[in-house]
Amino acid sequence: MATRKRLDFFDWPRADMIRVRFSPDGRYFAMAGVNEGRMMFCDLTTRERRPIGRGYRSGLHDLVFSTDGRRLVTAGTMPNGVVKIWDVETGRDVATLPGEAGFLFNHIGFSPDGKTLFANSLEMVSLLWRAPSWEEIEAAENRKQGP
């Protein structure tokens, strides 16, 4: 900011509201189209963009990086409000946390110690989950894929 020079320009391909969040180490920022549910990682070191799988049919309302920066957590609309966890390195959907039918979860985050994840809804409902460890997510993913 001291030089007042722009570092780069990342445009979103469609006229859509977007959410943007930086990773804790500042290497990435994630962009998400609120109305269409598309997501993208932008690597600030290489200036490359990498799409993430389309996680939501309609709305994607919030996103946050885990405190260790290895996961991106998103809240959006499927048939009901749902929270998804994405692997930052691969861009793959690695876990889905159950939502509550009829609620629109529009704000998510982690506790300061990174062990609890919360989602707040427009209807003033909050859900809490113990954030699974990376090892727990990998074990669950391996069980899904089978031998």
Biggest sheet descriptor: 4 strands, antiparallel
What proportion of the residues form beta strands (DSSP E)?
A: 35-45%
- Count of the separate structural domains: 1
Topology-level CATH name = Methylamine Dehydrogenase, Chain H
Order of helices and strands: EEEEEEEEEEEH
| Residue-averaged pLDDT | 79
Q: Please state the second-level CATH architecture.
A: 7 Propeller
| Global shape | globular
Number of strands: 11
For the record, the CATH class is: Mainly Beta
- The helix/strand class is mainly beta
Trace the largest sheet across and list its strands.
Answer: 1-2-3-4
Secondary structure: helix percent:
under 10%
Task: Enumerate how many helices there are, as a single number.
Answer: 1
CATH superfamily: YVTN repeat-like/Quinoprotein amine dehydrogenase
What Rg, in angstroms, do the CA atoms define? 16 Å
Distance between the termini: 52 Å
Provide the low-confidence segments as ranges. Answer: none
What do you see in this structure?
- The strands form 3 sheets. A 4-stranded antiparallel beta sheet has the order 1-2-3-4, with no helix packed on it. Strands 5-6-7-8 form a 4-stranded antiparallel beta sheet. It has a 3-stranded antiparallel beta sheet with strand order 9-10-11, with no helix packed on it.
- The chain is mainly beta and 147 residues long.
- Helices cover 8% and strands 42% of the residues.
- The protein has 1 helix and 11 strands; from the N terminus they run E-E-E-E-E-E-E-E-E-E-E-H.
- The chain has one domain: Methylamine Dehydrogenase, Chain H (7 Propeller).
- The protein starts with 17 loop residues before the first strand and ends with a helix.
- A hairpin with a 5-residue loop joins strand 9 (105-110) and strand 10 (116-121).
